Amino acid sequence: MKKLLCFIGGAMLAINLTAQQIKPLSVGDQVPDLTFNHVMNSTKTQFKLSDFKGKLVILDFFGTWCGACIPLVPKLNSLQNKLKDSIQIIVVCDDISNEVVSKFIKKKWNSTTRTIQLPFVLMDSVKFSLFPHRMVPHEVWISPEGKLIAATDESQVTLENLLAAYSNPQIKLKQKVDQMDFNRDLPLLINGNGGNMDRLIHKSIFTKKLEGVPSCAGITLDTINHTRRLYCINSSPVNQLTNVYGISRSKFVLIKNNAVSFIDTMRSSSLKDSMYCYEITIPDTVSKAHYKSIMKNDLEQNLSIKTQLKKYKYPATS
Hints:
318 residues, Glutaredoxin, 5-stranded mixed sheet, 4-stranded antiparallel sheet, Thioredoxin_domain, Redoxin, oxidoreductase activity, disulfide bond, redox-active center
């Protein structure tokens, strides 16, 4: 038993190393003669990519859990029937077993009048390494000569595009972009996670007082990412709101239970106990009125207050 376990472990390790050494294919690369084992929904149980030489091959990467994949299959089946002499569509399933997929096919389609004739196969590590993706549907186009034409989303799989790709493998299709290094556990757009700052609409941060950090406020411009950052560090809510309304910080009143009290922000020691940090990052094309509106909403939500501009007669001082 120990020898058998060691052998299986060694075999699995060899397969993983082989998959890791395979580099993703680029447009124009020759696709290796892939073997498709455990074929479902077909008279064959195995075939190779070379069996379809002379045809345009579409690998439709699919998941039984994918809402967009399911209605696509009947469409692909119809296209296959129309162009059966020039194309071959193969559904590559990102699922755990033949049994799961076979039951799904029978339940979803082949128990009705809408029978699906497309062959289904399970995805393996080699195919994923050659055609990496994070989202399905994922459509891989392989020319009649066995070269990679494109990797697209499902919108590109039309009758017109299929006919054009069959006759002209140099066709330019809109390539699908999958960010393979995206990490959902990390903040968006930081260090390029999910994209660059040119995708930013706005980002704001609100924190408690930072010990050991001096009070400061200002604006910085990022000329590379074309963003503007406004910040108020260890500042009272009143001081932060002066940036919103653009008025003197000595002209704030507090209304509580319909009672009006005037705040001397220059002298009030109580304000030192309610320090916060706030910053907002926005594209540099955003208007001043727009980003001040965002700031006002952010501060009101985080401080659970409502603010407005209103005239009051300031009491005389002795």
